[in-house]
Amino acid sequence: MDIIQECFNNIGRSDINKNSKNLLSDGIIDSMDVVSLVSEIEKHYNKPIKSNFIKPEAFENFENIQHMITENMSHDSSF
Questions:
Q1: Domain boundaries, the chain
Q2: What is the pLDDT of residue 13?
Q3: pLDDT of res. 77
Q4: How far is it, in rounded angstroms, from Cα 48 to Cα 28?
């Protein structure tokens, strides 16, 4: 979860933390934040996140974001 926090910090959203919930559905983050966050995650792992894993529910909280990353890693041997 520290990696996710670091990614949020890197996109200028240090106001978001592991206790934040309903990030997308409550408008705490928007589509530009999602794009920036995905880019930061991809930079960190030096691998892309496949588009089929990028779903709105994946960005509701840190747990869902971590699950998206884990799922992407398990379905893509190059990740």
A1: 2-13+20-75
A2: 98
A3: 52
A4: 24
Angle made by CA atoms 32, 3, 20, in degrees to the nearest 5: 60
Task: Please tell me the distance from the alpha carbon of residue 46 to that of residue 29, in angstroms, as a whole number.
Answer: 24
Q: Does domain 2-13+20-75 have CATH number 1.10.1200?
A: yes
Contact of 49 with 72, CB cutoff 8 Å: yes
Written in H, E and C, the secondary structure of 14-60 is: CCCCCCCCCCCCCCCCCHHHHHHHHHHHHHHHCCCCCHHHCCHHHHC
What stretches in the chain show pLDDT beneath 50? 79
- Cβ distance 23 to 37 under 8 Å? no
